[in-house]
Amino acid sequence: xxxxxxxxxxxxxxxxxxxxxxxxxxxxxxxxxxxxxxxxxxxxxxxxxxxxxxxxxxxxxxxxxxxxxxxxxxxxxxxxxxxxxxxxxxxxxxxxxxxxxxxxxxxxxxxxxxxxxxxxxxxxxxxxxxxxxxxxxxxxxxxxxxxxxxxxxxxxxxxxxxxxxxxxxxxxxxxxxxxxxxxxxxxxxxxxxxxxxxxxxxxxxxxxxxxxxxxxxxxxxxxxxxxxxxxxxxxxxxxxxxxxxxxxxxxxxxxxxxxxxxxxxxxxxxxxxxxxxxxxxxxxxxxxxxxxxxxxxxxxxxxxxxxxxxxxxxxxxxxxxxxxxxxxxxxxxxxxxxxxxxxxxx
Length: 346
Fold this sequence. Notes:
Blueprint: E1 30-35, E2 41-45, H1 49-52, E3 58-62, E4 64-66, E5 70-75, E6 80-88, E7 93-99, E8 117-119, E9 125-131, E10 139-145, H2 150-157, E11 182-185, H3 197-206, E12 209-215, E13 231-235, H4 237-248, E14 253-256, H5 258-266, E15 277-281, E16 296-299, H6 308-316, H7 318-331, E17 341-345
Helix pairs in contact: 6-7
């Protein structure tokens, strides 16, 4: 993995709670701005974004809303298990992850085999059918039997997926962005979390345009360090037109999150034009592949061997990525979905 960075993340830099519980508004987290042109780094607040972006810039934002996709159940052997719904497939099937319920857990994933049944609340059940991939033994294709529609069932029995660094469960609202209106993501498209309605208004007044799309993010367990699986996306023709118009006028296209990069890079052609489209994307952005549809990215801070770092290196270059992460560690930026932000500009 070319994107791996040689650092150790100190526990004190892991954000264990939303900024609102640390006495901050969600749009007041820290923002490190990295300029590829000259390698300059700026330490700012996210509320400074209208002063950093320019009139005519386009922000590609994900409208996918986070599901309460974690369900407590038991397996046939009486073991308590945590079932994470990752990706909705055709024919009523899902990609799921089966974990020990303890947070943290020394061995996070439960051993399972085809035919394993997980009994879930309210008389529901999940039967594991086949491994979802050859490279990720933690993920399974499962058939769900539910007493109601999946959204209604999860609203009653589900909880947001939570990893070891978050100190306790929180309501689903803590995991939604201001753009979220189409449920489908197992994990929050968290790069957009610091945006507030007030900040969006200020950006629009500045002349920044928003290009919405949908990509339903699956689980990306931080213990696994795997490339992303196939994910469902939809890029509207109007958003594609906004991106193309900005590029023709010499303005910048800034992806809000790695989901935005993946969606736009899926629908860009060899001439650099973005098209509307929907379906399943298997695009994996690496430094070798490069990027065509985006000029920069708003993102969070990722673990040392996260596959997202390959994408960030494709956008920033290795030197700028290294210097950004060194500065973030030295200055005490906070990691993960409730942490601080990183803006990479050309």
